[in-house]
Amino acid sequence: MHSRRIKNNWHIIKGQPLTELDKKVLYYQNKGHLVPSRKLIKTAEQIEGIRRSSVVNTGVLDLVAREIKAGMSTAEIDKLVYDYTVSHGAIPAPLNYEGFPKSVCTSVNEVVCHGIPSEEEILEEGDIINVDVSTILDGYYSDASRMFIIGKTTSEKEKLVRVKECLEIGMQAAKPFGFVGDIGNAIQRHAEKNGYSVVRDLCGHGVGLEFHEEPEVCHFGRKGTGMLLVPGMVFTIEPMINMGTWQVFIDEEDGWTVVTEDELPSAQWEHTFLMTETGLEILSY
Length: 285
Ligand code: MF3
Ligand code: CO
Fold this sequence. Notes:
The protein has 285 residues and is of the alpha+beta class.
């Protein structure tokens, strides 16, 4: 390994014998790998809470899937999300998050992510849109997004929306006691093989007790790098895949909307996952 110093995230509990898990994680830590801290390994009770939050989150996206159509404003999607979430006893996580003004992110065509719903933005035949929904239920967070095609679109945009494959391939690459970099590597290979680029500036993330936790889950990179994946970790994978350049900029006026530099379309799919003893389980899709 390199000579750089790695944080010793995994601490032994004084006066207690090492468990099999301790031994395994310490083995990787001693080899110089970044390992999770103990608080990133969710308890059964926490997993149950995140699962319940995820059910509401998935329900929101299923509702949007049923209702979304040409002629609708993105503000109407925001209202659907807010009303459903609140009526299920939950809170939309984006609302007032670091000043975000709405309950959901709606990102149309060349908008990569963090699009703000608006009365003025009307969905048109041929648009592709990412709807990114995040829910807090009893303090537990979940996060997922899907693409929707409005009516019929071009074959190029239709193919781009199929980059859901990148998420599926990333999911398969994630193994217990593998590394976060295995995920990004698999996604980047698949995207670039299809002539697309992977956004670098935004990544997946740990989630559950907070909206954004460690680790950072980048959608590009090298196998065997990044944080060790340990059963009990909960995180998102959410590749943003561009038709042209991977470079993006943030709209100066609203300070949120992320747009492709060349203004070519972008697509994104996101699930919340639980790492189990055998691989990833989808919590919210
Ligand atoms: N839902 C986004 C994610 O996948 C985060 C949106 S932050 C917001 O991580 F403030 F824009 F909602
Ligand atoms: Co996310």
